[in-house]
From TrEMBL:
It comes from the Bacteria. Belongs to the oxygen-dependent FAD-linked oxidoreductase family. PROSITE patterns: FAD_PCMH, OX2_COVAL_FAD. Residues 41-209 form the FAD-binding PCMH-type domain. GO terms for molecular function: FAD binding; oxidoreductase activity. Keywords: FAD, Flavoprotein, Oxidoreductase. Its cofactor is FAD. This is FAD/FMN-containing dehydrogenase. InterPro entries: FAD-bd_PCMH, FAD-bd_PCMH-like_sf, FAD-bd_PCMH_sub1, FAD-bd_PCMH_sub2, FAD-linked_Oxidoreductase, Oxid_FAD_bind_N, Oxy_OxRdtase_FAD_BS. Gene3D superfamilies: 3.30.465.10, 3.40.462.20, Uridine Diphospho-n-acetylenolpyruvylglucosamine Reductase, domain 2 (3.30.43.10). It comes from Thermocatellispora tengchongensis. The keyword Iron does not apply.
Length: 457
């Protein structure tokens, strides 16, 4: 006979308070309830509440807060950056409603919605959201961390376009938060991420975009130096309507990949231009001639096809990642990156991603928010897969990439930070902004139950 602990027995009371599902250790469905995109981190909660609605989220938070238990939240599973242990995990994937208002050019979505759903719902109205490199990612975590997307230089961060939030705070209250009802909390949540409660619904602006001139250009890895040096100079000539990045990719011998890319080290230029095909082609011409091309897929495309620009993987895997933001990308920085992650480096780094920032990203939002990293000129992000005999070498190799560009570091974007302790998370903001964030945190979460993931305290 199994004897339940007092806490284990109490989960029966939790189950009676929600209409969704409560899973506990030993439940056969627990693995599905805790599944995340990055499988490197252990997820061993005391209980999982698969919320059926906003009221379930509030009930789960009240139950946990009464016992001073930490609360973690998961929507699509892409935001995991640390272990989840001895916590109540609230999953919001069932909060999946999407409502588009074509007159106000806004969308209202539940916390479990992925960007693909918003793209599909907005497209018939000639509108598009400010999603990132893959529509497989959830709206909530991406947006609360800022959201650096495919049209970022023209429209800024996704968080800049948030109009309203519904948020469950540590007291279990459901709050409507906007610039009028609670301006300080509204400021903090948009950029401070999940420290202040569980967002159950977001309303945000859409943009009038139906097509763009975009895609990817793949170059052979041995041309990495030519491509990266050309890239750092080329981006200085681009208008705000053009958002780009370049990646150093060590690709697996996957039959699903195009034959020229399988098992190769390649350089991948990603390009998204809001303008005519003629203008887009003219702007891209210098990079098309920078080196021989393996694949060139850039052309006019419907916005619904934007996943083809990055071609990000969608299958879960164990990863280690880190990121930083740069004030500049001089020739020396490129050379140092190539020394530790270029074609001559035998390292288990699957990707180094360099994103060009500036433009609207550098300007304050119409309603100011706590998004960090606005002054950055570039974002650099490195990732390694923790599989195979080289898995143990991945963290050091990824760290070496970030260390290589440390002389030009200007903080980081929280969504690209990777695993980080509290001190490093706090370092993202200037002293005055951090003080505002901490004041908001103390007000709505005085006992610190929302401290999993990227937490300021």
């Amino acid at each position: 006979m199994t004897t339940l602990s007092p806490l284990g027995a109490a989960t029966g009371d939790l189950a009676r308070q929600v209409t969704g599902t409560v899973l506990v250790p030993g439940d056969p469905a627990l693995a599905d309830g805790t599944a995340a995109f990055n499988t490197a981190w252990p997820v061993r909660p005391i209980a999982v509440v698969a919320a059926a609605d906003e009221a379930d989220v509030a009930a789960a938070v009240r139950w946990a807060a009464a016992r001073r238990l930490p609360v973690a939240v998961q929507a699509t599973g892409h935001g995991l950056v640390a272990p989840v242990e001895d916590a109540v995990l609230v999953t919001t994937s069932r909060l999946s409603h999407v409502r588009v208002d074509p007159v106000s050019r806004t969308a209202r979505v539940g916390a479990g919605v992925r960007w693909a759903q918003v793209i599909e719902a907005a497209a018939p109205h000639g509108l598009a959201p400010l999603n990132g490199s893959t529509s497989h990612v959830g709206v909530a975590g991406y947006t609360l961390g800022g959201g650096l997307g495919l049209m970022a230089r023209r429209y800024g961060f996704a968080a800049d376009h948030v109009r309203r939030l519904r948020l469950v705070t540590a007291d279990g209250a459901i709050r409507e938060v906007d610039a009028t009802t609670d301006p300080e909390l509204f400021w903090a949540v948009r950029g401070g991420k999940g420290d202040f409660g569980i967002v159950t619904e977001i309303e945000f602006g859409l943009v009038p975009v139906t097509t763009l001139y975009g895609g990817g250009v793949y170059f052979p890895g041995q041309a990495a130096a030519e491509v990266l040096h050309a890239y750092r100079q080329w981006v200085e000539t681009l208008p705000e309507d053009t958002t780009t990045s370049v990646g150093l990719l060590r690709l697996p011998p996957d039959p699903a990949l195009p034959e020229p890319l399988r098992g190769r080290f390649v350089v991948h230029l990603r390009y998204a231009h809001l303008g005519s095909a003629e203008e887009g082609a003219a702007l891209l011409a210098p990079m098309r001639s920078a080196a021989p091309r393996l694949i060139d897929s850039v052309g006019e495309m419907p916005y619904t096809a934007v996943d083809s620009i990055y071609m990000d993987p969608t299958d879960p895997m164990p990863c280690h990642d880190r990121g930083t933001a740069l004030s500049a990308l001089p020739a020396e920085a490129v050379d140092r990156l190539l020394a530790v992650a270029g074609p001559g480096a035998d390292v288990p780094v699957a990707m180094v991603d360099i994103r060009h920032m500036g433009g609207a990203l550098a300007r304050p939002a119409a309603v100011p928010n706590a998004v960090a990293g606005r002054d950055a000129a570039f974002s650099v992000y490195a990732l390694g897969v923790l599989l195979g005999p080289a898995a143990g070498a991945v963290p050091a190799a990824v760290g070496a990439v970030i260390d290589a560009v440390a002389p030009w570091s200007s903080g980081s974007l929280i969504n690209f930070l990777g695993p980080a302790d509290r001190e490093r998370v706090r370092s993202l903001w200037p002293e005055a902004d951090l003080a505002r964030l901490l004041a908001a945190k103390r007000r709505v979460d005085p006992y610190g139950i929302f401290t999993t993931g990227h937490s300021i305290g």
